[in-house]
Write the structure tokens for this entry.
Amino acid sequence: MALTKLVRFLLSTVTFFSLWLLALNEAIPVPEAVAEFLPALPLWIIVSFGAYSLGSIGWSLVTFGDCEEAHRELMKEVAQARDELRRNKITIDDE
Amino acid sequence: MASAQDKAVGSVFILIAAIVWLYYTTWVFVLPFVDADHFLHSFFLAREYAILLPTLLLVVGVTGIGGFIGMSVVKKQLKSKAAAKKAA
């Protein structure tokens, strides 16, 4: 079957995790400096990913182009649609 | 362009993300190689917290998300049950 993104992600995650476990138990040679921060490495990756996600949301907020005209047009179309449906006696259940 | 409020919120997000990342990266990668009596250590909590705090936050976060999903599912089931009872 095709190599989906999920499978690829799981493969890289499992590989990294097993390498990390091996290094932690000193089954593979690890330079002494690296051993200092090795236990915290996966958690650091997760925290970095969280920070990157938050930052990218913030960046999109700052750089997003507000399309005033499209907004007005859309609101008009919504009002039109609502009137039409009301005319045809369909009530929209707005939950 | 984006409203001023959007820009403000966005820049706050970016700032928080940058600060959190820099603080945590220093905590994990720089502090182990700095002498124990250097003044830099006074800015950081004990190293156990570098593992404890994010793990705690992660557990709370995932529990919150799971709880919210569970609540939504239960609410939906209750609603469909009430609708079925009304139709009967």
Summary: The radius of gyration of chain A is 26 Å. The mean pLDDT of chain A is 86.
